[in-house]
Specification:
191 residues, alpha/beta, 5 helices, 29% strand
Length: 191
Amino acid sequence: MDAERTRVSEAFEAIPRVNFLPPSVRSHAGVDAPLPIGHGVTNSQPWTVRFMLRRLAVPPGARVLDVGSGSGWTTALLAHLTGPTGSVVGVEVIPALVEFGRRNLAGFRLPWARIEPAAPGVLGLPDAGPFDRILVSADAGSIPVELERQLAVGGRMVLPADGVMWTVTRDDAGWHHHPDPDHRFAFVPLV
């Protein structure tokens, strides 16, 4: 786990949060708290993002789906972790945030990462899967079967559901759900 902790720390250094915030809150980039990015959405607390990325354990070369990409920060962090042999696609339901995230992402040399608008009524990108890793930054209330189906065999998904952080793994026998009962999380709802 120490190697994963180091990789995530290196991603945080390479992809500063401040670059993914509106000018009005950039002076608070170092605060370990969620910050508003407009449209009732926040840029997640850094501690929470680190926690999720460590659990996700993104290997170089992975195909990753970032559900609820918001400002594009997690998409960029994931792209740093996959490296240029991987691919990352963020999906976002709010059109203005798709554009905001794309502009922010363009400030980094990560051509293997992109942000797409979410299709109405569709979770994730079912036609683009399966994915080796899926990160979900909104609370669905329960673990969505639609996202589980987009997970490759051998893959891993990290998501909040009803305030609990879950890790979902998939092997040849099916899907396995692992809750983290020691922490509670508050996320905007996954719509």
